[in-house]
Structure formats: structure tokens, C-alpha cells
Design goal:
single chain, mainly alpha, Receptor-associated Protein, 15 helices, about 5% strand
């Protein structure tokens, strides 16, 4: 394995070059054996047609960050030096993007940069919330505790979001498969059966005539429907990326019965959880709410928090700044007010966070329990109606023979 290095020799002269070694430890030992003081060493990345990493098709997932935080917590808890920690994790990471990021972070730390500053150079991987938490840990000298707290907090948040996504993915997948099967039936199966039924010369049931008409419509205008659908999706995507579009889509999602309530509780759990994490680490309330606004994941709640920050800067309390919004439950406002009056705001926010997490978990369990019978009824009605439209005239023809 080839390593690039920068060293200072015994005369104080800077030198750089490359060295071949089995691993980094062997390379370091070899250079130190020559009397060099190592200032930089890193493996040289070689690429060929067979090992090119298509990093533009990859991304760092939330699960990767959770695992990384747990590893950082363990290593910092064992008093391993920061540079050694990031070098080690950079070599061991399975994600090419994360491996490159950790190596760059290690290079910055080796150059004298603080961990929080090194992490802040990679906003697509480490959120503003994450960086501010690390910065707070550096200032208080409790970096290992910060990583431990981050790993637990991110793990809970990841589990929460995974449950919500999984609960919604299943019905969407079933509906898409059902639509595809129905379209194939109407365009490939029904036309052949309809020829037989129409040649029989008998009066067809209303449901059969409706199915045949749908089949003819899809055959004659299916291409135009597909083009229209693609255009509609393209327009929707472009619209949803505008500020007005983001707000409209987010408000619609929050207004959908039951699902909207689920999303509201998810966002509230994230807001209270992030605020509690930052306040307990000594971050100011203004900085806490500014950071929470950027990572909440909802433009509606982001706008609410930004308006609240403006009010807080004029001297208004946190609870009063959140009053008057339909998206913020009154019980949450009252609990925050109690926390402010008693000086236990961090503990109150933790209680609220745990409460909303349990609410989301319970709502997801109920939703999953409702989805299965609803899907069975939905598929049964669709398939049963199609089969009835086919079998009824066939039965009438066979009875007449």
C-alpha cells in the first residue's frame, strides 16, 4: 500500500514523498526509524477501471451517522486521541463518501483545526445541529459525553423516522402494484375476452360494459395518459422545489386526516428533542432554536420557529413566542412555560420529546394495524369487481347453451 507523507528531518528541513508499506502503522514506524518527525501521512488513492467508486450515486444515510456517532462515543470514552479516532474510522468505514469525509476531517485536525470546525466543512454529512453539539462539547471539555448523548439521540430519532416511513411505504407499494396489474388486465386480457363476449350477441351487464369501455379507453388513449402523468409528475417536482410549493405540500401533508397528525407529532418530537439536547449542553436558546429550525425537516415548523426567534430577541419568553399557532399544541406551550418558570426547561423538553415519541410509536402501530385489513378490502373490491365483470356474462352465455 502506498502512502504520501510530509516529515521534518533531524536538521529541521521539511521533506515530502511516498513510501510503500503493508499498513499505516508500518509506514509510520519506518519513517520514525529514519529519524523523521511525521507531520502528515495518508494513503494514496489509486483508481482503475475495476475499482472506480461511483460516489455520485451514493450518499451518507442517517443510519451511517448513528453508527459513526456510537463508534466516536466508544473511542473518545476510551481516551483515544481525536486524530487517531478519525484516521481509524476513515479506514474502516464501508461508505466511500463517509470514508473520504473522515479522512479529510482527520487531515484538518492534524493541521490544528478543532473537530467542530473540521466537521462543519461537510454540511451534507454533519448537520448544523451535530456541529453545534460537538462545539459545545469542546467548550465544556465533555466531548466523550457529547458523542454518547448524540449517538443515543440520533438513534431514537432514526428509529422514529424509520417507523413513520415504513408505515407509509407499504400501502403506497401495494397501491402501485395494484394499479399496474389492473392496467395490464385492461390492456392485455380484457380486450381478448371482450371479443368473445360481444360476438355472443347477448346483453352484457352494466359492470361488464363499464370494464370494456375502460379497456378501450386505456388502449386508445393510454399513451396520452402516460405522457400526461409524466408531465404532471415533472411539474409537481418543479413546483415542490419552490418556496411556495414546499409550503403548500407540507401544509397539505399536515392536513391529511390521521397521517397529518402523525407527521405533526413527529416534527414536535424532533423539535423538543433537539432543543433539549442543545440546551442541556449549554447552547443559548437563540442558537438552539435557530439550529432546530434548520433541521426540523418541515418548512411550516421552520417558519414558526423563525418567527418565534424574532419574538424572543425582543424579550418575549419561549412559551409566549410559540402561542397562537395551530401546529403547536397548547399543552406543549403550557409545559414549556412551566419549565421556564421553574428553571427546568431542559427536563420539560425531554419529557415532551419522550411523550411525542411514544405518541408517534403508538400511532404508527395503530396505522399498521389498520392498513392490512384496509388493503385486503381494497384489493378484494378491485379484483372482485373485475372478476365479476368477466364471469357474469360468461355464466349467462353458458346457461343459454
Amino acid at each position: 500500500m502506498l502512502f504520501k507523507y510530509k516529515v521534518v528531518d533531524q536538521k529541521g528541513v521539511d521533506q515530502e514523498g511516498q513510501i510503500e508499506a503493508i499498513n499505516e502503522d508500518v509506514a509510520i514506524s519506518s519513517l520514525q526509524g529514519r529519524g523523521y518527525i511525521i507531520t502528515y501521512i495518508n494513503p494514496v488513492k489509486t483508481k482503475s477501471l475495476f475499482n472506480i467508486e461511483f460516489t455520485f450515486l451514493q450518499r451518507v444515510s442517517g443510519k451511517d451517522i448513528v453508527i459513526l456517532s456510537k463508534q466516536l462515543s466508544t473511542l473518545f470514552g476510551a481516551q483515544v486521541p481525536a486524530l487517531r479516532v478519525f484516521r481509524l474510522l476513515g479506514r474502516e468505514s464501508e461508505s466511500p463518501i463517509l470514508r473520504n469525509v473522515l479522512n479529510e476531517v482527520a487531515d484538518d485536525i492534524q493541521g490544528g483545526s478543532q473537530i467542530s470546525i473540521a466537521l462543519s466543512k461537510h454540511p451534507k454529512v454533519f448537520s448544523e445541529f451535530y456541529v453545534n453539539m460537538i462545539k459545545s462539547g469542546e467548550e465544556t471539555g465533555k466531548l466523550n459525553k457529547t458523542f454518547e448523548f448524540l449517538s443515543e439521540h440520533l438513534d431514537r430519532n432514526f428509529d422514529l423516522m424509520s417507523k413513520v416511513k415504513n408505515a407509509l411505504v407499504y400501502p403506497i407499494f401495494v397501491v402501485i402494484v395494484f394499479i399496474v396489474v389492473m392496467v395490464l388486465m385492461l390492456t392485455m386480457v380484457i380486450p381478448k375476452i371482450s371479443i368473445v363476449l360481444l360476438d355472443a350477441g347477448q346483453e352484457l351487464p352494466a359492470i361488464t360494459r363499464a370494464v370494456i369501455s375502460m379497456s378501450e379507453f386505456f388502449i386508445n388513449y393510454g399513451v396520452f395518459l402516460l405522457i400526461g402523468f409524466v408531465i404532471a409528475v415533472f411539474v409537481f417536482i418543479r413546483f415542490s422545489r419552490t418556496e411556495f410549493g414546499k409550503m403548500s405540500v407540507n401544509r397539505f401533508m399536515l392536513a391529511v386526516p390521521y397521517v397529518g397528525s402523525l407527521y405533526k407529532k413527529t416534527y414536535l418530537a424532533r423539535i423538543t428533542g433537539n432543543m433539549q439536547a442543545m440546551l442541556s449542553s449549554g447552547v443559548s436558546i437563540i442558537k438552539t432554536m435557530e439550529t432546530t429550525a434548520t433541521v426540523v425537516g418541515s418548512i411550516v415548523y421552520q417558519e414558526i420557529l423563525e418567527e418565534s426567534i424574532k419574538s424572543i430577541k425582543t424579550g418575549v419568553s419561549v412559551s409566549d413566542s410559540l402561542t397562537g399557532y395551530d401546529e403547536i399544541p397548547n399543552i406543549m406551550v403550557q409545559m414549556i412555560k412551566i419549565g421556564e418558570e421553574t428553571g427546568e426547561l431542559s427536563n420539560i423538553l425531554e419529557t415532551l420529546s419522550r411523550f411525542y415519541e411514544r405518541e408517534v410509536t403508538g400511532a404508527v402501530d395503530v396505522l399498521v394495524g389498520m392498513i392490512e385489513p384496509a388493503m385486503i378490502v381494497f384489493l378484494g373490491v378491485g379484483v372482485g369487481g373485475l372478476m365479476a365483470a368477466i364471469l357474469m356474462p360468461i355464466y349467462n352465455i353458458s346457461s343459454a347453451i
